[in-house]
Amino acid sequence: MISGLAILLLFQLAGELIVTATGLPIPGPVVGMLLLFIVLLARGRVPHGLERTADALIKTLSLLFVPAGTGVVAYLALLRQEWLPITAALVGGTALTIAATALTMRAVIAHRERKGPRSAA
Q1: In whole angstroms, what is the distance from residue 2 CA to residue 51 CA?
Q2: CB-based contacts of 1: which residues, under 8 Å, 6+ apart?
């Protein structure tokens, strides 16, 4: 489990270093996870330690919502005051996400249909 956590932290560090060096407007952890994804695709498998660590993190993911819930309670007065722009951002962001997902899925399906069935060889 320690090795998996070390892998995750090293890729996060690599992402932070890349963002700092290049000035990309993307969070370092996002760049790090993209790098990890590319490495895992190239390897063709997930190392056992990383898989165990990821499973453990996913099992405890609900704990990460406790600080967010506390923030909502702490800023309840501000949320009441700014409910309209917050609601518009949430609904608009959700609609854009659904539309982007639908368009991406449509493109993937069209690409697969053009490519034809895979050969059994």
Answers
A1: 11
A2: 49, 52, 53, 56
A 10 A CB-CB count for 14 gives 15
- Pair (69, 55) in one structural domain: no
Structure tokens at 85: 């722009």
Does residue 78 share a domain with residue 55?
Answer: no
Structure tokens at 84: 């309209």
Same domain flag for 81 and 101: yes
The whole model's pTM is what? 0.57
pLDDT tens string 58-115: 998 888 788 888 888 889 999 999 999 999 999 999 999 999 999 999 999 999 898 8
Which has the closest alpha carbon to 53: 7, 121, 99, 112?
A: 7
How far CA 41 is from CA of 19, 26, 46, 73, 78, in Å, comes to 22, 21, 9, 41, 44
User: Which among 14, 31, 59 is the end of a domain?
Assistant: 59
Q: 117 and 95: one domain?
A: yes
Please tell me whether residues 70 and 120 are part of one structural domain. Answer: yes
